[in-house]
Amino acid sequence: xxxxxxxxxxxxxxxxxxxxxxxxxxxxxxxxxxxxxxxxxxxxxxxxxxxxxxxxxxxxxxxxxxxxxxxxxxxxxxxxxxxxxxxxxxxxxxxxxxxxxxxxxxxxxxxxxxxxxxxxxxxxxxxxxxxxxxxxxxxxxxxx
Length: 144
Description:
Layout: E1 3-8, H1 20-41, H2 45-49, E2 53-55, E3 64-68, E4 76-87, E5 93-103, H3 109-126, E6 129-131, E7 137-139
Antiparallel strand pairs: 1-5, 1-6, 2-3, 3-4, 4-5, 6-7
């Protein structure tokens, strides 16, 4: 069964809109900091922390990337960006950007664990609202 998690940018977030390039930059930063951690520990942590290769499909190049792995216990995570119209508490409509992480049917438990980790990392960096795969919501932005 296909599962989805969403990182929704709220008015209190760092940015109002997010692009696939922003996501790629954040994932590259994630790879860089895990490599530094591995170097400090004298361990090849980078490959364990991010066992994927970022790839872009020819169609929808500016909306979707996928992380594909040839490492045992990992297969694939799809990442896309989009916008939706939501209503505020005041009843006003606004456009809300979000990042969607999708686990295809071929995804493993390792993929789900890494996707949860990446969701939390992205939500924390963007100060966003995170809707996890299990439908729980985490708030990484300052709440009133």
